[in-house]
């Protein structure tokens, strides 16, 4: 069995909404194995985005522990978590989350800047990856000059810039039409199959989730199902 | 990496032009005030210092009246034989005086009011030592020069339509006098408004104008270290002779410290005003940076999600605040230097040739100070940005 790149043990996440405590996650344990493609599904409010945030060390669990490559994050300070996000995990968001006043290339260069890569090298890497995702002729365009599908490609290019082992995607097709959505999914599947990236994706659409090898279903902050996808041949 | 942080910060400022310019204003005004006013105060200090220095640090001035009232030209409490008393004080090297009166000078049918200054010909070297007189044309005065005058070159050239030449004749209250000496301009006298001084011997004033007594006495001492003792002894003996203290004495050092005290007070006022302006400027930067951090909450979230450390976010916003301060400082220094230049030009025109241009130390200090003000003001906003929770920042609408 492959080793767990992300491991969650009995994770609880509680939010204080004024006087009311909301249990977004109530005791979730989960392993993401190296090279896997896992979809997290569930109705809205089930805690799937919260789980993604905790697993990708964007936020810390209220209790329980998360291990990244076997290292517990509770012993790390915020700067070390930032380093993990910057080197090991690439993020793709539903709303793209590109910086609008920067060009496609500059957006892709940004995570490399955080890792101290020299400017010349950053430019080369960014241009190559943008070509790889099919945006070779759009590198100097600003996000506002690109279509939704193209923006998500820029976001995927940005996620790939530091060549991370894990790609985390939160509803990557949620803001796209079905044609663009399918193209983005093909790209993500390729990353898994051809480039060996471990992928963790949140979605609420069955047919999108079916691109994964394994689907984890969440309800009321708990895992209610964890099953392999039967491939339709 | 540091350079990059700097250029990113600079671009962010450029993207918010109007707001950034308005934010700069407080710092610009504060720094310009500091640079121009301190430059002027320093220039004045240097100017007064060097002028007094040229009088010699071993001189004592004896003036009529009290120190509070400026009664030099009016009261006549000093007597000619006071000089004999002073010359008898141990430690005194030399003593002389000025006999002054006003007169009307006539030259080629034009008239002008002048201040006749009579001195003792055999003590004229004292005035030369102090820089009051420096004869460039003609000859020294002698005791027999009853109808001779010496002119300052600026007076000779500018008073009448035609310049007065050496050896020409002028009339003083109807009597003819011959110009026997031309001195270089006297900056010290003209800076105190006495640009119409004409030199004669004391006998001229005493015999032709019936002014028996001097208006001011000048004493030099053998040893500068004893100057205070000599000053006290002169005061004691003169007071005894006069029966009351209807005079006062001053040394160059007294004058210098008096001027320094006044300039120090001016400097303090400048500091308070500039300090208030910089405080307001700093609050302006803080306000702008807080708004900037708010507006860029989502961007901060994105940056943190894709690997920016809290330290990087902190330094990015600190740099931006520091840069606003520094740009304000640079503009302030330029404007302050221009004001100093204008002040120098205006002062030279009025007869005070001094430089109010800021020194390199002042410029350097002002720039560092503006940078520090910016960074201190940016500290709270930058910290707020650095501590933002990435999840909340990302979902911020």
Please, could you describe this protein's structure?
The complex is a heterodimer of chains A (233) and B (397). Chain A has 233 residues and is of the alpha/beta class. Chain A is 33% helix and 29% strand. Chain A has a six-stranded mixed β-sheet with strand order 6-7-8-3-9-10, with helices on both faces. The radius of gyration of chain A is 18 Å and the shape is globular. Chain B is of the alpha+beta class. Chain B folds into two domains: 2-52 and 256-395, no CATH class; 78-245, no CATH class. Helices cover 56% and strands 18% of the residues of chain B. Chain B is built from 13 helices and ten strands. Chain B has helices at 2-14, 17-55, 82-87, 124-129, 153-158, 187-191, 202-208, 227-242, 252-295, 297-305, 310-349, 360-386, 390-394; strands spanning 59-64, 92-107, 110-119, 135-138, 148-152, 169-172, 175-183, 197-201, 216-221, 247-251. A six-stranded mixed β-barrel of chain B has the order 2-3-8-5-7-6. In chain B, α2 (17-55) packs across α11 and α2 (17-55) runs antiparallel to α12 (360-386). The longest helix of chain B is centred in the C-terminal third of the chain and has 44 residues, at 252-295. The model of chain B has no long low-confidence stretch (mean pLDDT 85). At the A-B interface, α2 and α3 of A face α10, α11 and α13 of B.
Keywords:
heterodimer; A: about 230 residues; alpha/beta; 6-stranded mixed beta sheet; 4-stranded antiparallel beta sheet; B: about 400 residues; alpha+beta; 2 domains; 6-stranded mixed β-barrel; 13 helices; about 55% helix; about 20% strand; elongated
């Amino acid at each position: 069995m492959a080793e767990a790149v992300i491991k969650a043990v009995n994770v609880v996440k509680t939010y204080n909404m004024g006087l009311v405590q909301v249990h977004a996650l109530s005791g979730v344990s989960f392993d993401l194995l190296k090279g896997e493609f896992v979809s997290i599904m569930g109705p809205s409010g089930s805690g799937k985005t919260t789980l993604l945030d905790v697993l990708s060390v964007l936020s810390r669990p209220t209790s329980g522990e998360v291990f990244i490559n076997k290292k517990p994050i509770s012993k790390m300070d915020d700067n070390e978590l930032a380093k993990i996000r910057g080197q090991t995990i690439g993020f793709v968001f539903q709303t793209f989350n590109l910086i609008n006043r920067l060009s496609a290339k500059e957006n892709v260069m940004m995570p490399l800047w955080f890792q101290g890569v020299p400017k010349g090298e950053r430019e080369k890497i960014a241009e190559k990856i943008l070509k790889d995702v099919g945006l070779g002729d759009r590198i100097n365009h600003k996000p506002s000059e690109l279509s939704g599908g193209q923006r998500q490609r820029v976001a995927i290019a940005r996620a790939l810039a530091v060549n991370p082992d894990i790609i985390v995607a939160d509803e990557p097709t949620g803001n796209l039409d079905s044609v663009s959505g399918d193209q983005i999914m093909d790209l993500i599947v390729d990353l898994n199959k051809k480039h060996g990236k471990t992928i963790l994706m949140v979605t609420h659409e069955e047919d999108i989730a079916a691109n994964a090898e394994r689907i984890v279903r969440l309800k009321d902050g708990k895992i209610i199902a964890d099953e392999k996808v039967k491939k339709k041949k | 990496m540091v350079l990059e942080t700097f250029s990113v910060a600079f671009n962010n400022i450029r993207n918010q032009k109007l707001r950034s310019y308005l934010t700069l204003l407080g710092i610009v005004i504060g720094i310009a005030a500091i640079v121009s006013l301190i430059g002027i105060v320093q220039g004045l200090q240097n100017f007064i210092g060097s002028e007094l220095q040229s009088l010699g640090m071993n001189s004592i001035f004896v003036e009529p009246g009290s120190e509070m009232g400026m009664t030099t030209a009016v009261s006549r409490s000093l007597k000619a034989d006071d000089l004999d008393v002073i010359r008898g004080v141990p430690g005194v090297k030399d003593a002389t005086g000025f006999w002054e009166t006003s007169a009307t000078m006539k030259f080629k049918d034009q008239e002008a009011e002048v201040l006749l200054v009579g001195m003792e010909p055999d003590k004229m070297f004292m005035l030369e030592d102090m820089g009051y007189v420096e004869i460039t044309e003609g000859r020294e005065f002698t005791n027999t020069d009853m109808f001779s005058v010496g002119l300052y070159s600026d007076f000779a050239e500018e008073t009448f339509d035609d310049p007065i030449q050496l050896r020409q004749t002028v009339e003083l209250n109807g009597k003819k006098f011959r110009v026997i000496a031309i001195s270089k301009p006297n900056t010290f006298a003209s800076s105190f408004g006495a640009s119409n001084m004409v030199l004669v011997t004391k006998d001229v004033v005493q015999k032709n104008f019936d002014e028996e007594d001097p208006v001011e006495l000048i004493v030099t001492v053998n040893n500068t270290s004893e100057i205070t003792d000599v000053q006290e002894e002169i005061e004691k003996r003169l007071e005894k002779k006069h029966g009351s203290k209807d005079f006062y004495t001053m040394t160059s050092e007294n004058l210098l410290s008096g001027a320094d005290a006044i300039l120090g007070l001016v400097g303090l006022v400048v500091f308070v005003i500039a300090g208030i302006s910089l405080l307001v400027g700093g609050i302006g930067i803080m306000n702008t940076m807080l708004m900037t951090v708010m507006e860029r909450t989502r961007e901060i979230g994105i940056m943190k999600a894709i690997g920016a450390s809290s330290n990087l976010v902190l330094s990015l916003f600190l740099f931006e605040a520091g840069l606003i301060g520094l740009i304000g400082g640079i503009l302030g220094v330029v404007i302050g230097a221009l004001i100093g230049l204008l002040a120098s030009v205006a002062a030279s025109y009025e007869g005070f040739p001094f430089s109010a241009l800021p020194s390199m130390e002042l410029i350097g200090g002002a720039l560092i100070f503006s940078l520090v003000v910016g960074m201190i003001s940016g500290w709270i906003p930058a910290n707020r940005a650095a501590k933002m929770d990435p999840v909340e920042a990302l979902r911020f609408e």
